[in-house]
Write a structure and sequence with these properties.
About 45% of the residues lie in helices and about 5% in strands. The chain has five helices and two strands. It has helices spanning about 5-15, 25-35, 40-55, 75-85, 100; strands at about 25, 60. Strands 1-2 form a two-stranded parallel sheet. Helix 2 (about 25-35) packs across helix 3. The termini are far apart.
């Protein structure tokens, strides 16, 4: 059974899609941009369940401390590589300077 995305899910997806190439945003930032303060876990759920289906740029969403949340076995290395391919500097430890590469809005 297929279900349509809820209004909340659509708002989260639009916020994720709004993060431009060469930038990164935190889960919390995405939640706030979607009108869901405190909704970072909802962002995680949307990314996990809908990234592939809707071609969401999942790799641009990281933790609020600038670190990639995924470990290397779960896709963290791929996420770092995708960010680097867009020109984002990622440390060997998987950290991104959100002051430099965070959203500009």
């Amino acid at each position: 059974m297929k279900t349509e995305a809820t209004e909340t899910t659509r708002a989260i997806m639009e916020s994720i899609l709004a993060v431009p190439r060469g930038r990164a945003a935190s889960y919390g930032y995405i939640a706030r941009a979607a009108g869901l303060p405190g909704g970072a876990r909802q962002v995680v759920r949307v990314l996990h369940s809908m990234s592939e289906k809707y071609s969401l740029p999942w790799h641009r969403v990281i933790r609020s401390d600038g670190f990639i949340a995924l470990d290397s076995c779960s896709g963290g290395d791929l996420q770092a590589a995708l960010l680097r391919a867009e020109g984002v500097e990622v440390s060997e430890q998987g950290w991104v300077d959100l002051e430099k590469y965070g959203p500009t809005t």
